[in-house]
Amino acid sequence: MENNISWVAILGAVTGVLGSLGWVSNYIIGFLSKPKLVFSKGPYVMTWNDVNSGAARRFVNFEVGVSNKKTAKRCVATAKIIKYPNGVNLQDEYALHWADVPYSSLSTSMEPVDIGGESRRLDVVFTAPGLNGARIAMPIALSRPESIMQAILPPGTYVIKVSVYCENGRGVHRIIRIIPTEQWHDLKAENVKKQTT
Fold first, then answer.
1. CA 123 → CA 43, 59, 91, 94, 119, distances in Å?
2. Looking at 3-12, 62-71, 102-111, 166-175, which range is the least confident one?
3. Are strands 113-115 and 134-136 parallel, antiparallel or unpaired?
4. Is the dihedral of CA 139, 140, 141, 145 positive or negative?
5. Which parts of 98-170 fold into alpha helices (H)?
6. Residue 24 to residues 10, 19, 31: CA-CA distances in angstroms?
7. Which of 26, 76, 132, 192 has CA 20 to 30 A from 158's CA?
């Protein structure tokens, strides 16, 4: 009788271990098969014509793609101001704008996009002729750059954490340094350090 109980206990333990291994392997396979966002290029500074007005603007951009050919759904991006010059008053976090997506003069939120086989360009900061310093590239600031005070970056040095998230995969973030000046065409951007989530 004792031998039968031992075999039943051993069989139960083996079944439990195999079940746990199956659950763990399914979790790992599911995690690895999710889209993983990456910064495929950037930060870089480029002059683009504004979608709405056609006026020239200088942008700090990233190209955002996926590393495993899966489609990342409803991607959004934010900029968190980590360091800024003394005397500057800013919000902690801003919703950013995907390039080539129409924006509204009334909205502070961003329109989500899907990212699949081709990278999408993300606007982070911009300058324009006649503006002193730069602006965070949130939709409402793109519409009215002269009047959206919370988006203004006066000349100086800023450290910004740019984060991109999607609803069905893994996000990414990068810490960059932005240097706007009094001359709109002198906008500079560089990596501080890389991190992924």
1. 10, 7, 18, 12, 13
2. 3-12
3. unpaired
4. positive
5. 139-143
6. 21, 9, 10
7. 76
Whose tokens are 């900029």? That residue is 79
- Phi/psi at 45 (5° precision): -110, 130
CB 53, CB 142: distance < 8 Å: no
Of 128, 131, 125, give the one whose Cα is nearest residue 157.
125
Answer with the residue of higher pLDDT: 111 or 191: 191
Record the tokens describing residue 155, joined without a space: 């000349």
Kindly provide the residue ranges of all beta strands, DSSP E only, lying in the chain, ordered along the sequence. Answer: 37-49, 56-66, 72-83, 93-95, 97-98, 113-115, 120-127, 134-136, 152-153, 158-165, 172-179, 188-196
Report the candidate in 171, 154, 184, 187 with the shortest Cα–Cα distance to residue 76: 171
Among residues 177, 179, 175, 165, the alpha carbon closest in space to that of 98 is found at 165
